[in-house]
Amino acid sequence: MLDSVLLAFHNLRTRPTRAGLTILGVVVGVAAVAALVAIGQGMQRSVQEQFRAIGYNTVVVTPGGADAGTSALGAAADRFSSLPTPVPRGGGTGFPGAALRRATSVPLDRIRALPEVVRAGVIRTETAFVTSPGMSGLGVLRVTGVSAGIFDDFPGYFPGFAVDQGRGLAAGDGRALLLGSAVAADLGVTVGSTVQIEDQEFTVVGILASTTASGVGITYGNLNLALFVPIEQLSTLFGSPERFTLGLVEARTGEDVERVAEVVRTTFTESGIPVSAVTTRELSARITAVLGGMQATLTAIAAVALLVGAIGVMNTMYTSVLERTRHIGVMKAVGAKDRQVLGLYLVESGLLGLLGGGVGVGVGAALSGVVGASVGRAFEASGELASLAGTFSPRMEAWLVVGALAGSFLLGAMAGALPALRAARLRPVEALRHE
Amino acid sequence: MLEARGLVRTYRLGRAEVPALRGVDLEISEGEFLAIMGPSGSGKSTLLNLLGGLDLPDAGVVRYRGVELSRQSREALAEFRGRKVGFVFQTFNLIPTFSALRNVELPLVFQGLSRRERRRRAEEGLAQVGLESRLRHRPGELSGGEQQRVAIARALVADPEVLLCDEPTGNLDSASGAQIMELLASLNRERGITLVVVTHEPEVARLAGRRVLMRDGRIVSDGSGEG
């Protein structure tokens, strides 16, 4: 075996340009696939980490839910992609027709009172006209209503949350406003300033520290651009107290979270608000599945490059077999068996694949780093999608490296199989006569 | 030891059939030095290839110590070529990118011998043909006579019983050709190796104990006498 490898190396070295170009062909394919898989792995990992931060004994409630399963998946997927879907002003993100029959409000107190629930919180996001004395004109900004205590109760949902100046929102706050550092600067406000949201004046009670943390499934957008008010104030501004964007319910340790989700759903339904309630574990699994599907599709496309690389290996091997026909004849004349000639050529083409794979993994790692960083920056700069920026941190796992190397060796060997078989089958006398 | 019976071999060149051997019987005894002569196209090389298992006949049989070559598997045939016979070609057929040493080692690689053992035997073989100072040279850096000596060392390294040589001096000037023939003859004389040499040079054939003359795919004379 070692002899085959040495011999194969020797043969590759005699045609360095051809070997190099062939390897380059493999490099491109392996690099593309490895980079995409690394990026995909990074995204899945970051989703899982975020859900782990929120906690797996948490139930995520979203409005709607005639069919809880699909709508939750849809909601999750929507939120993951966070496409800037224009939110109808004053319309909330509640499904149209949700709970039109009865004027009611989110049953947060009833949920909190459930024996199997430790804590619960709810978020409502609306788009509002916002202006301040330090600002000419007015902006249309996303305003997020939060239930009291949600930042402390569900820190995992607010990665990077820290009050820099002033204080956070407290129970019993009236028209209090807690805002992100960037939006505070834009509005030209400090703690104690007033900001006008729609037709109401709010007092700035606190400003958040600037953060680069981000995550999937965040409804409030970038924390630096967030405007937080007590959720009751949004009912005052926009009506429809039954509307909400997201509810978070933490089950008591030891409770069956699935069952708690069921109880939560029932409680909402009894209040006339159809919702879907899904455990974070399931949500995480669904988003991971969606990401996995995306990744599989992208990887399949990148695999075309891999196929081209393999064809390159095949071409090179056919050429070498043709070129070395006489040498094959010599080898057979001095006692080489068919399988030894076959092995020799398989190792040689496998080596082409392996060398391409080795370089390809390296290039792929670099590529995924560059792409991840630049996509992350692009998302960050976009503002609206900034919450996704941090999810583009590629991960080149050990199994990916080992798999890519083994796979590229196999790919090379498979591409070389037909030429190698041809070489092995040559009749010695004909091979020797070859010019 | 080597026996040919009713050998027929026909080559197909497109539609035309070119008969190379039209029924050849030949028996070669152990330790013999046999020259096969004849004009080009008479079938000498074809016969040599069939005797060494490089090719198989269309009809007739080749037996080596009673074993019929045509009935052997490809694997067993490779084994036969690797261990029982050594080939020396007119064009040397050395691997140009290999050093003399690695060229000589090659048959032993396919026998799965250890690197150390191979190296030892290859160095020994090259010393026997007087090339101990040329181990690292590539064929292109050697003279024709030296290249043929490398090829002979390669043919001998697996310790075969028969050496089959196809115009071994055909590409050499007369001085180095004479040296090569002297080397081959001494192997036959001193080591008792069976030597079959295809040639059309009478001075080469003169060294042989037995001369077979071929014409048009048949043996027309076979004897030890002069001429």
Task: Give a description of the structure.
- The complex is a heterodimer of chains A (435) and B (227).
- Chain A is 54% helix and 15% strand.
- Chain A is elongated and about 95 Å long.
- In chain A, strand 2 (117-131) and strand 3 form a beta hairpin.
- The model of chain A is unreliable at 66-101 (pLDDT under 50).
- In chain A, strands 2-3-8-5-7-6 form a 6-stranded mixed β-barrel.
- Chain A is an alpha+beta fold.
- Chain A has 13 helices and 10 strands.
- In chain A, helix 1 crosses helix 11, helix 2 (16-54) runs antiparallel to helix 9 (280-323) and helix 9 (280-323) packs across helix 11.
- Chain A has 2 domains: 2-49 and 295-433, no CATH class; 65-273, no CATH class.
- Chain B has one domain (32-49, 82-223): 3-Layer(aba) Sandwich (Rossmann fold), CATH 3.40.50.
- The radius of gyration of chain B is 17 Å and the shape is globular.
- The longest helix of chain B is centred in the last third of the chain and has 18 residues, at 174-191.
- The mean pLDDT of chain B is 93.
- The relative contact order of chain B is 0.20.
- Chain B has helices at residues 44-51, 74-83, 100-109, 115-128, 144-156, 174-191, 202-205, and strands spanning 2-13, 16-28, 33-37, 59-64, 67-68, 85-88, 162-166, 194-198, 210-215, 218-223.
- Chain B is built from 7 helices and 10 strands.
- In chain B, 34% of the residues lie in helices and 28% in strands.
- In chain B, the strands form 2 sheets. Chain B has a 6-stranded mixed beta sheet, sandwiched between helices. Chain B has a 4-stranded antiparallel beta sheet with strand order 2-1-4-5, with helices on one face.
- Chain B is of the alpha/beta class and 227 residues long.
- Chain A binds chain B through residues 3, 7, 10-11, 14, 326-327, 329-340, 427-429, 432, and chain B through 49, 52, 54-55, 74-75, 78-79, 81-83, 87, 89, 93-95, 97-98, 106-107, 109-111, 115, 154-155, 158.
